[in-house]
């Protein structure tokens, strides 16, 4: 583990999960046409970040116009610029937080934000970057956050092409964090779901606190039901806007008296 990672781990232990290069490559390769001529900022990244590695390695082939990273460290920090094929490290004032004056000034000049931000600050992080294009990682549960779901509903953002679950932690080992996803403003083409299940009243009861039927698994979405349906949040990994409209989120769905896990409410187009 590098010193940078050691220092970071003292800062915010629970946010110290580093993205693997293979996961970054699998997702970012899909956006190659959208990155040409763009200024990219990674605003939660050290020089050890695999985002920095991917973007500097592929800077020329992606046709990037600029690349800067800022790094959070309350004990003093730096920014990275990629200039003429070299990483240039410059000390900056402040703590390098994504919402610090230095980082906000860099954000203002950028076209697109690409990173894995601290999961614990995801709500505020999205508020900070939402005027820009972005490709960022978050917990799948973040789709129902009060400020995030409306962006999905309005078609401003969507989940990316791949999901990830393995991250490197500060001791250098790999940890399974459960399902995490890419959240992006960029287009994501995906095929419509092939629906094979059929509706019946017994298997698809109506919630006692919302006028929609409950669907327990994405593969159980009935092909012949036209009303509102509550589906698990991971449905958004397969959502095709030509097939389903997003209606709502339901944080505490109830079947009779029984609370079940949160759902998003969808309807066939
Ligand atoms: C999930 S980790 C990902 C790190 C790196 N982007 C990557 O993908 O490997 C989130 C990082 O954000 C850093 N962080 C915590 N608070 C921050 C803040 N306010 N502004 C910027 N970065 C912050 C954490 O120290 C942590 O290293």
- Sheet with the most strands? 8 strands, mixed
- Helix percentage: 10-25%
* Count of discrete domains: 2
| Overall form | elongated
* Architecture (CATH level 2) name of the largest domain: 3-Layer(aba) Sandwich
SS field, number of helical segments: 8
Sheet with the most strands: spatial strand order: 4-3-2-1-5-6-8-7
Small molecules bound: S-adenosylmethionine
State the end-to-end distance: 50 Å
Q: Overall pLDDT, averaged?
A: 94
CATH class division of the largest domain = Alpha Beta
* Backbone CA Rg: 20 Å
Oligomer: single chain
What name is given to the CATH topology of the largest domain?
Answer: Rossmann fold
Order of helices and strands: HHHEHHEEEHEHEHEEEEEEEE
Unreliable spans? 1-12
How big a fraction of the residues is strand?
25-35%
How many strands appear in the DSSP assignment? 14
Q: Could you say which structural class the secondary elements and strand pairing correspond to? A: alpha/beta
Summarize this, please?
It contains 8 helices and 14 strands. It has 269 residues and is α/β, with parallel strands linked by helices. The protein has 2 domains: 182 residues, Rossmann fold (3-Layer(aba) Sandwich); 56 residues.
């Amino acid at each position: 583990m590098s010193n940078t990672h050691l220092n970071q781990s003292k800062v915010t232990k629970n946010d110290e999960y580093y993205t693997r290069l293979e996961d970054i490559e699998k997702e970012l390769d899909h956006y190659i046409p959208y990155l040409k001529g763009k200024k990219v900022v990674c605003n939660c990244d050290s020089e050890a970040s695999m985002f920095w590695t991917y973007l500097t390695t592929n800077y020329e082939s992606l046709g990037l116009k600029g690349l800067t990273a800022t790094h959070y460290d309350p004990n003093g920090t730096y920014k990275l610029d990629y200039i003429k094929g070299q990483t240039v490290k410059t000390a900056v004032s402040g703590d390098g937080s994504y919402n610090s004056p230095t980082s906000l000034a860099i954000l203002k000049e950028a076209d697109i934000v690409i990173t894995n931000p601290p999961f614990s600050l995801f709500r505020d992080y999205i508020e900070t970057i939402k005027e820009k294009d972005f490709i960022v990682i978050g917990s799948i549960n973040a789709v129902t956050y009060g400020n995030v779901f409306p962006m999905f509903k309005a078609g401003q953002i969507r989940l990316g092409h791949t999901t990830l679950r393995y991250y490197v932690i500060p001791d250098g080992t790999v940890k399974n964090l459960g399902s995490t996803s890419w959240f992006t403003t960029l287009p994501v083409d995906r095929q419509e779901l092939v629906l094979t299940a059929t509706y019946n009243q017994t298997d698809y009861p109506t919630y006692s606190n919302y006028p929609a039927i409950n669907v327990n698994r994405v593969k159980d979405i009935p092909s012949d039901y036209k009303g509102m349906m509550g589906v698990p949040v991971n449905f958004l990994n397969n959502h095709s806007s030509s097939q389903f409209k997003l209606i709502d989120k339901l944080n505490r769905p109830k079947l009779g008296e029984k609370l079940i896990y949160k759902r998003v409410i969808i309807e066939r187009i």
